[in-house]
Recover the amino acids of this structure.
């Protein structure tokens, strides 16, 4: 009899090697453990352990062999046992349960099990403590450290325990909340949550006093008290995360708000000007849709998952990526995800910031490298397991992300224009339609996620706000929807359950029919004991909500079940504009839809001009040009991100046509392309850009640079300039402060100006307004760390023909040219950060000049004049030249004929925007000159094909070997 | 000529795998494993059984293990019968891991698995292009091919083979593909040419008849010329190397 199955790999695993290396200790071994809620007899033990292990590569530990087997590896003396806290998603355990159920059929029914990682070492206790800190997160896992002897004893005495979720048995009775209380007590409800009978609080609602007063007024007009469920629902629906109150607020003299004026305003202006069918579905749906070809639409959406990733990096990031995949599934009648994108803004993983959420070194922030690694692997597992390629992304490091990492996750989807003759992007839940919830079950996951991601991260940030995605459950659900239900038109509407859970998804969908009635007791739960309000707002993942005509319901449920996916009838849509929720027949929520969605008090914001934070002076160290190039190439924001590209499957679906690593020398590219249909040579080019480092100097120019770079990268890759759309993701800080709001307004204004100039509609966007950390440093001093305002612009464009796609590798004999004018713009550049501060100007985009360069480039490329091209961005021309040489493994000779009193450094490292480095065959120059006028380009050298890059300044020649540059460029990022 | 392409529970390369078969002339269908379990007789309508790549059951309990156990419990005899007929089976990546866990490859003596696929030596997921050479011209899948340039994308692609089994594998000529370096010589375990540290640079194994092929690289992702990295700098042709594998299946039945 035993209650555990423990398996270890005979040979050293990759994970063991990396742990051994990291901790400089060869005596580390990892055991995969499974703890059962009841004892297994010998027969079952043998059968089950055979089912979940491999005879050749693994050994199953038994009471008899455990001592002998383990001592053959080392004389271990410490053990750390890491398992999930009760209620946290345990994907491995779910799989094991399925294997057992399928194989043993009815003979072993009710049991619980949990997966466990057991790490053994020979060393000191402080070594194992260090390992445990790197391998586990106390927020979601229990970590037990004990001597090896005790481990053996546990084994012999069946003392490995699994903890089940134990929620107190509670009988729900309808709870009414008295709002006729003082302003102080009212604001406590908003800040700390509804008070339970035992005087404890449920956790922040994120409702301000004005909102609570609006709620009080509403209920005094309808002459009753609100229920707890009603207040919770209003808090979710009115959260900054769901309603984007700051973007819709009156700000200074902009009455309609910056979203309507600048973002939507730009798109409306563009649609009015272009008169084509490019824009299909904008701002109203889960993602934005554009026309791909005559039969297909593509959609794109980018989300952030910052706060959850600060608390549980792996869980936060995986939930971010599978969550945005669902936005795609919820676009129109359901688009198939065909590409993922990512962008991470992180603190230096090699630094120890030592930040604490509470005084006296309590409640520490996770270490920067733990956060970075967790985020990178979360998106890996989410994307790879879902079979969605992840070709496009980037990473940026800055100390100011130490309190809050930014995690942007995006997805592109594709859907036929028409399904059974009806437009696929139109959907409407009809009165009488059944509300069906499909996918995973509901637990306490992410309770209060929407409300707390709208607040600053402080000691009251609730821990149940953490979810972990389960990509396989989602993949199963997604396959049924896209392949088996959608094309038969079996449902009238669909949306995803993200922030705010059912309260948000049903609330939004019901706008299509009028209202809804939901019966909460019908909802399948992960474990008993949830309060109705918890069921209603839970953010448990992998769920979609469908509106299904009653005649189709049986068929739809059957299809889901046949693929191992749960689907449940939970209510119906009605015509009456009422939101009604019942629990065991008691009505616990009854609100007017109008009040639910529009009843929140509109903000009235004022801005003020901020004090500009000047870049700190840093003395320029004298060193050679070649040394400087090496320093820049190996700096974290320029160095290759190959290690991410190779762990993210970008080849699945067989669509990758321009890959993240480009040229024989594998340079991490600025843009990638996929060809989504085998039947059409048209491709989709993807890129993105953000310049948080430029934000404090001039937020308007910062936004201009982001749009210009995201656009330029697609033009350079060969996209059709008339078929480019962009997405805005604003991640701001302290958005209740007038100077931050000023920066926001300026950036938004630039969005309008440049989008209209470039004719690139915004098709989707999202904002996250409070990315601040309030806590303490190691000395106990209270500190606030705000991220620099960050605007990520994602660009998506169509490439008409395969032959338009460019490469970044020149050929022998090519001449090299810079398109566009170089100015002295070193302010906030990588150069000024790494080499030294130089008094200079910040990069400013002149859209008229830029567009001339882009249009001419496009023309030249279509005529076959351009042989290779790369956009010039971080690190300026010097870095672009070096990347070309590394990618092609071919030498370049650059002649620095300096104009305008430029120094070499200014010419090579200025980050002037809107420039492209191109190469072409000499004999194409005549045709080139027919397109470009002389002042719009500079010939700077040629491709020699040797193994060096040489820079010639008058008679002085500076040389560097390409292989040495490649070494610097491919250095590991310290701490990762 | 009909091909059955398996799907379900996290398999995810079924569309492109079916496409590759269709282009060379097969008729085919993607069939969910639960439907196949419901009606295993439909296997009789097919000459090729393909298990595509993916992440069945999220690789939990070892890649390919859970799906192999599901097949063992519900479809083992039917699939073994299929393999003993004049028909073809291919497992790509996760499909390879499933075939290995089922013991259908190399299938020397016993019913149990004889080799294992373990985590890459690098400890990380590797999505990259590799060169492989064909080591066994017996298999109909590999006839008249010398080398192939294909992508791999896996976390657990390292073949682990007990010494005596390796001896029999070599004696019976069951190594299908081996990783080679830029000089077209065996990679000798050197990264990144051998991306996972596989024993003897093994990238694919076959069964004794050669009609069952378990390969880690993805031929369906190297099907067209534009799939190949830096195709712009190379000679223009229509297909990539992966095409050859699917054409061989067609030739077998022609």
């Amino acid at each position: 009899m035993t209650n555990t199955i423990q398996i270890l790999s005979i040979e050293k695993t990759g994970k063991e090697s990396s742990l051994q290396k990291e901790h400089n200790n060869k005596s580390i071994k990892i055991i995969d453990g499974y703890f059962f809620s009841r004892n297994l007899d010998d027969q079952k033990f043998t059968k089950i352990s055979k089912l979940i292990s491999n005879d050749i590569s693994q050994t199953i530990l038994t009471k008899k062999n455990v001592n002998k087997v383990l001592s053959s590896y080392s004389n271990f003396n410490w053990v750390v046992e890491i398992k999930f806290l009760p209620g946290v998603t345990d994907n491995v355990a779910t799989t094991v349960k399925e294997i057992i159920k399928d194989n043993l059929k009815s003979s072993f029914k009710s049991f619980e099990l949990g997966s466990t990682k057991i790490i053994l070492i020979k060393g000191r206790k402080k070594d194992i403590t260090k390992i445990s800190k790197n391998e586990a997160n106390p927020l979601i896992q229990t970590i037990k450290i004990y001597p090896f002897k005790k481990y053996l004893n546990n084994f012999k005495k069946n003392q490995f325990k699994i903890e089940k979720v134990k929620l107190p048995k509670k009988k729900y009775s309808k709870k009414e909340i008295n709002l006729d209380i003082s302003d102080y007590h009212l604001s406590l409800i908003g800040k700390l949550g509804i008070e339970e009978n035992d005087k404890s609080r449920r956790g922040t609602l994120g409702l301000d006093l004005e909102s609570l007063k609006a709620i009080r007024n509403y209920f005094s007009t309808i002459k009753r008290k609100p229920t707890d469920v009603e207040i919770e629902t209003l808090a979710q629906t009115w959260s900054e995360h769901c309603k984007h109150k700051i973007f819709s607020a009156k700000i200074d003299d902009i009455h309609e708000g910056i979203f309507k004026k600048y973002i939507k305003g730009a798109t409306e202006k563009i649609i009015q000007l272009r008169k084509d069918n490019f824009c299909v579905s904008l701002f109203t749906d889960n993602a934005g849709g554009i026309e791909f070809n005559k039969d297909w639409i593509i959609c794109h959406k980018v989300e952030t998952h910052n706060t959850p990733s600060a608390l549980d990096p792996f869980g936060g990031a995986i939930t971010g990526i599978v969550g945005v995949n669902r936005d795609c599934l919820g676009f129109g009648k359901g688009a198939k995800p065909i590409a993922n994108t990512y962008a991470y803004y992180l603190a230096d993983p090699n630094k120890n910031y030592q930040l604490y959420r509470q005084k006296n070194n309590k409640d520490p922030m996770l270490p920067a490298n733990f956060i970075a690694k967790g985020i990178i692997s979360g998106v890996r597992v989410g994307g790879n397991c879902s079979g969605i390629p992840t070709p496009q992304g980037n990473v940026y490091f800055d100390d100011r992300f130490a309190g809050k990492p930014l995690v942007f996750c995006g997805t592109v989807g594709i859907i036929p224009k028409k399904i059974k003759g009806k437009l696929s992007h139109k959907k409407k839940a009809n009165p009488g339609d059944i509300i069906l919830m499909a996918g995973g079950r509901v637990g306490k996951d992410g309770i209060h996620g929407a409300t707390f991601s709208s607040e600053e991260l402080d000691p009251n940030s609730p821990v149940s706000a953490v979810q972990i995605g389960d990509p396989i459950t989602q993949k199963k659900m997604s396959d049924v929807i896209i392949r088996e239900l959608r094309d038969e038109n079996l449902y009238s509407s669909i949306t995803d359950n993200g922030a705010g859970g059912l309260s948000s998804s049903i609330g939004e969908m019901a706008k299509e029919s009028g209202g809804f009635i939901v019966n909460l007791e019908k909802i399948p739960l992960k474990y008993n004991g949830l309060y109705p309000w918890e069921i209603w707002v839970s953010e448990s993942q992998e769920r979609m909500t469908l509106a299904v005509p009653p005649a189709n319901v049986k068929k739809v449920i059957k299809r889901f079940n046949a693929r191992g996916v749960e689907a449940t009838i939970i209510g119906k849509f009605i015509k009456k504009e009422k939101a009604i929720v019942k629990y065991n027949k008691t009505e616990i929520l009854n609100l007017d839809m109008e009040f639910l969605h529009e009843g929140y008090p509109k903000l009235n914001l004022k801005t003020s001009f901020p004090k500009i934070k000047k870049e700190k002076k840093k003395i320029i160290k004298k060193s050679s040009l070649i040394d400087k190039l090496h320093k820049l190439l190996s700096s974290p924001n320029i160095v290759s991100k190959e290690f991410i590209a190779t762990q993210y499957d970008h080849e699945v679906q067989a669509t990758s046509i321009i890959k993240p690593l480009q040229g024989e020398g594998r340079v991490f590219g600025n843009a990638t392309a996929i060809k989504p249909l085998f039947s059409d040579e048209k491709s989709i080019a993807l890129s993105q850009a953000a310049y948080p480092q430029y934000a404090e100097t001039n937020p308007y120019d910062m936004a201009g640079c982001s749009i210009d770079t995201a656009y330029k990268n697609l033009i350079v890759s060969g996209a059709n300039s008339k078929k480019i759309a962009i997405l805005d993701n604003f991640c701001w800080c302290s958005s209740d402060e007038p100077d931050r709001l000023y920066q926001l307004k300026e950036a938004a204004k630039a969005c309008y100006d440049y989008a209209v100039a470039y004719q690139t509609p915004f098709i989707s966007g999202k904002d996250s307004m409070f990315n601040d950390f309030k806590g303490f440093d190691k000395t106990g001093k209270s500190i606030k760390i705000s991220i620099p305002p960050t605007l990520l612009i994602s660009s998506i464009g169509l490439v008409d023909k395969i032959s338009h796609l460019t490469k970044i590798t020149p050929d022998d004999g090519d001449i090299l040219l810079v398109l566009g004018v170089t100015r002295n713009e070193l302010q906030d550049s990588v150069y000024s950060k790494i080499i030294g501060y130089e008094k200079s100007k910040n990069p400013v985009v002149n859209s008229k000049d830029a567009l001339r360069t882009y249009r001419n480039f496009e023309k030249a490329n279509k005529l076959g004049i351009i042989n290779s091209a790369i956009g010039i961005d971080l690190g300026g021309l010097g870095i672009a030249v070096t990347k070309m040489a590394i990618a092609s493994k071919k030498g370049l000779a650059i002649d620095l004929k300096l104009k305008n009193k430029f120094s070499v450094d200014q010419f090579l490292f200025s980050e002037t925007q809107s420039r492209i480095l191109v190469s072409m065959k000499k004999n194409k120059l005549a045709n080139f000159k027919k397109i470009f006028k002389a002042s719009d380009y500079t010939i700077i050298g040629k491709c020699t094909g040797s193994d060096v890059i040489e820079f010639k300044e008058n008679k002085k020649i500076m040389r560097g070997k390409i292989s040495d540059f490649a070494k610097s460029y491919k250095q590991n990022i310290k701490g990762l | 000529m009909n091909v059955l392409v398996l799907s379900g529970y996290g398999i995810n390369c079924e569309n492109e795998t079916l496409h590759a078969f269709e282009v060379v002339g097969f008729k085919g269908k993607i069939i969910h494993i639960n439907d196949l379990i419901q009606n295993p007789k439909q296997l009789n309508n097919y000459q090729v059984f393909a298990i595509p790549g993916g992440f069945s059951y999220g690789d939990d309990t070892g890649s390919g293990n859970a799906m192999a156990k599901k097949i063992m419990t519900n479809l083992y005899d039917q699939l073994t019968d299929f393999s003993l007929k004049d028909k073809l089976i291919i497992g790509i990546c996760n499909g390879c891991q499933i075939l290995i866990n089922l013991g259908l490859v190399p299938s020397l003596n016993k019913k149990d698995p004889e080799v294992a696929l373990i985590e890459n030596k690098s400890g990380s997921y590797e999505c990259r292009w590799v060169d492989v050479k064909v080591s066994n011209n017996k298999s109909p899948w590999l006839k008249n091919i010398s080398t192939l340039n294909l992508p791999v994308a896996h976390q657990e692609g390292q073949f682990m083979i007990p010494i005596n089994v390796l001896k029999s594998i070599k004696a019976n000529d069951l190594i299908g593909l081996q990783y080679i370096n830029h000089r077209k010589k065996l990679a000798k375990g050197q990264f990144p040419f051998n991306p996972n540290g596989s024993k003897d640079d093994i990238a694919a194994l076959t069964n004794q008849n050669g009609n069952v092929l378990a390969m880690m690289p993805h031929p369906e992702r190297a099907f067209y010329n534009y799939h190949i990295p830096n195709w712009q700098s190379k000679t223009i042709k229509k297909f990539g190397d992966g095409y050859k594998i699917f054409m061989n299946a067609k030739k077998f039945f022609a």
Remarks:
- Chain A has a mean pLDDT of 92.
- The first helix of chain A runs from residue 14 to 22.
- Chain A touches chain B through 65 residues (CB under 8 Å).
